Q: What sequence folds into this?
């Protein structure tokens, strides 16, 4: 396992890598950073810590209604991030229109840097691609959880056609991620690598869903390995890897590296963890 959860105590995992280059150089400019996410968003949590460390003003557009609460929102507000709630329709529009966010800022965000959901900007792939050089060897399979597809795309960029990436979609109906992966590779200037397989049947009911068997698996895995998991991404990825191994999806002599993408703060939203 590649323990990217240990990259930084707060800006951990793939969030550290995806934020690295978009935020690089902004410290001197003091540019406002704006992004979007849910009330337990790992991306928003990591962005708030990174912006605070760099002295950058930041705003989060949160899917929900005034009065909604989470420990994640408490954290980011304490770090100075502004929180603005948007309804589901407006949030959907933010996904579809890269300029829609400006209407949610009082000053129209004229000089702000916009980061899409999950921090999945084309420039994010460059930071993720650097992970490959840190591996002790190039395995037959890299296994990673997928939310927006940017981390998987970044791994493909770093592998440059070698190996095969197994992406475990953490969301239901995740087939559309294939188009997003191709788009991100293209926008970032990389070839349309196809040495990956996107597996969409291990979402356990959808994004943020964590049935008892998944929570039990996460707890048992942590007990046996002393490696903490969260049920939104990493537990689903390793649960799937176990199933793939038992069902003969992987060759018995295959060399496999699973990527721990961090996001452990999100486990606070699940009482049974």
A:
């Amino acid at each position: 396992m590649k323990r990217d959860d240990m990259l930084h105590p707060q800006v951990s995992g793939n969030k550290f890598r995806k934020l690295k280059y978009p935020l690089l150089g902004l410290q001197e400019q003091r540019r406002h950073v704006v992004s979007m996410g849910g009330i337990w968003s790992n991306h928003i949590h990591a962005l708030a810590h990174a912006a605070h460390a760099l002295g950058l003003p930041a705003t989060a557009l949160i899917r929900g209604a005034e009065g909604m609460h989470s420990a994640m929102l408490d954290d980011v507000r304490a770090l100075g991030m502004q929180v603005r709630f948007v309804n589901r329709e407006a949030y959907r529009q933010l996904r579809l229109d890269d300029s829609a966010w400006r209407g949610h800022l009082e000053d129209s965000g004229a000089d702000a840097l916009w980061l899409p959901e999950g921090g999945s900007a084309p420039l994010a792939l460059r930071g993720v691609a650097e992970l490959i050089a840190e591996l002790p060897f190039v395995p037959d399979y890299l296994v990673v959880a997928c939310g927006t597809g940017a981390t998987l795309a970044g791994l493909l960029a770093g592998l440059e056609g070698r190996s095969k990436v197994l992406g475990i979609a953490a969301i239901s109906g995740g087939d559309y991620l294939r188009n997003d992966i191709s788009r991100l590779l293209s926008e970032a200037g990389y070839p349309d690598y196809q040495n990956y397989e996107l597996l969409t049947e291990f979402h356990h009911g959808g994004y943020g869903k964590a049935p008892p068997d998944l929570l039990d698996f996460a707890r048992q895995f942590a007990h046996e390995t002393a490696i903490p998991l969260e049920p939104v991404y990493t537990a689903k990825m390793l649960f799937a890897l176990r199933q793939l191994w038992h069902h003969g999806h992987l060759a018995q002599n295959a060399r496999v590296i699973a990527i721990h993408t961090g996001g452990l703060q999100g486990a606070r939203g699940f009482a049974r963890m």
Notes: The chain has a mean pLDDT of 94. The domain at 13-119 is CATH 3.40.50.1100 (Rossmann fold). The chain is about 35% helix and 15% strand. The radius of gyration is 18 Å.
